[in-house]
Amino acid sequence: MSIPEKGNAVSSSKKKVGFSQGLKKISSYCAYQERCLMEVQNKLEEWGLTSSDTDKIIGKLLENDFLNEGRFVESYVRGKFGLKKWGKVRIRQELKMREISDDLIRDALEAIDEREYQETLKFLADRKWKLTREPDLYKKKAKVTRFLAFRGFEPDLIRNTVDELAST
């Protein structure tokens, strides 16, 4: 079997899901954890539902409050900041990739307590500073800065925090 034939064999063996079964499965999927509209659409598409069935199912999910983007964004921001210690820049990027509206993102990020945000940044910076075994101060600052930037904190906050650590 050639490669194109093999690819066709895989896609044709994929099990198609009907409307009622799709609604039941996707309701469970949404009940397990908050989901955004894009995740639900992708899952329904993966199951091979038609676009009209997908629209009807999404309508029912919205009607029954299984799907609520505002609730999803609040939950996502709480989890990523509270548990993973991500900064606002990274959280915003991840939500934009999920096609969430700017208004919902802005409102959810504003809900993060600024004092707690600063404390988290300082905690992460201090921990990374202590764990970084680099004798060259410039390289050490660069490593800590890159770490905090990857976590998604704002460049000006990172610079101030790292400069503060370097001066002590």
TrEMBL record:
Main localization, broad class: cytoplasm
Domain RecX third three-helical span(s) in chain numbering: 116-159
Coiled coil: none
Keyword Zinc-finger assigned: no
Compartment annotation: Cytoplasm
Keywords tagged on the record: Cytoplasm
Domain RecX second three-helical: 68-109
Domain of life: Bacteria
InterPro entries: RecX_HTH_2nd, RecX_HTH_3rd, Regulatory_RecX, WH-like_DNA-bd_sf
Keyword Transmembrane applies: no
Pfam families, A to Z: RecX_HTH2, RecX_HTH3
Family affiliation: Belongs to the RecX family.
HAMAP family: RecX
Cited function: Modulates RecA activity.
Protein name, per record: Regulatory protein RecX
Organism annotation: Cyclobacterium jeungdonense
Gene: recX
